[in-house]
Records
---
Amino acid sequence: KNQVEQSPQSLIILEGKNCTLQCNYTVSPFSNLRWYKQDTGRGPVSLTIMTFSENTKSNGRYTATLDADTKQSSLHITASQLSDSASYICVVNFSGTYKYIFGTGTRLKVLA
Amino acid sequence: DVKVTQSSRYLVKRTGEKVFLECVQDMDHENMFWYRQDPGLGLRLIYFSYDVKMKEKGDIPEGYSVSREKKERFSLILESASTNQTSMYLCASSFEGNIQYFGAGTRLSVL
């Protein structure tokens, strides 16, 4: 079954700390993996997109990694800020299609 | 700047009403999508359109229909709203297989 699982479900950290969110997928065939940030009551916004040949991609304080062999991805947030409080969603695209499988997200809360 | 606009942020409708959710994008994207998002579930695809007047069913099309008469506009129609269609509805657009751009969402409550 094609699935995307994220962990943890929720996470609370102090401002300035780093954190890592995990995404495991069983989607095949795989085209690309995306991380989105979704603020409460808003639509998701793209952070990174990686194909199977890319291992790492950065977007400011956000760094995504991908291991296509183990089918795992992580999103690392450096020096967290209050504005990082949001849900982070991992999305995997079926190769050659417009079909996307969405994870249920990790809800991150950054405290002052 | 990329923009996907959903006509309503909040809607309250009665069971049995016909409901229209409108989505407009200004990026000349071929592909447009309608998803619903429920707590504890990932976004689920209702319908997808890859061109004007073209549509494909997603994972949960039952109880919904769509219309795409112009490239920039994709409408989701609930023919007879039911309480189990209370949800957050998200519209997205993309160019080929690239990044999807999402609207702000419409929170629909069916009473």
---
Amino acid sequence: DAKTTQPNSMESNEEEPVHLPCNHSTISGTDYIHWYRQLPSQGPEYVIHGLTSNVNNRMASLAIAEDRKSSTLILHRATLRDAAVYYCILDRGSSNTGKLIFGQGTTLQVKP
Amino acid sequence: GAVVSQHPSRVICKSGTSVKIECRSLDFQATTMFWYRQFPKQSLMLMATSNEGSKATYEQGVEKDKFLINHASLTLSTLTVTSAHPEDSSFYICSARDHGATNEKLFFGSGTQLSVL
């Protein structure tokens, strides 16, 4: 399974944008880039995913490098509720085993 | 949206007893479900893939006789921790993929905190 690399932790001020980076230099052509986040004592929650083009949804934006070896999750205005561990994961979907392997993720702290 | 329900959310048991955790897909069918374990301050570790109507596939190092998985229907998978010991205390999380959705994203249960005394 291809691996992702993320910073262990990041800090942000409330209502400011946050850019969470992820490196995935061994990504294959069929790998989707998924982002999940986990609040304390809860199961992970889907945030966003993409394949090649940048993606936007109500939670965040995903910027994917042209060579697909890196991506950035963008939270446009961080709130205190966005404090969580963010996981960047490569997913081949059910066409493969369908399982997701989690890395260490980035712990985001949001300061008021 | 699709929801995965996990029960119980918290369980305390005595050493040597068995504990069953249920994972249900509420509005979609899941031929495959995944079970993860998470220790404090660590990431999720995949334990096994639960396959409806067939045997589960366990990750390397996970004892299949200790962590019994049953996936008898398209909406229910159970994980039974047999003869639990204090070192089995952990946060257990299940997940399922909605194959009917366009993006096949994975949905997660809210987790079960197991404490073995």
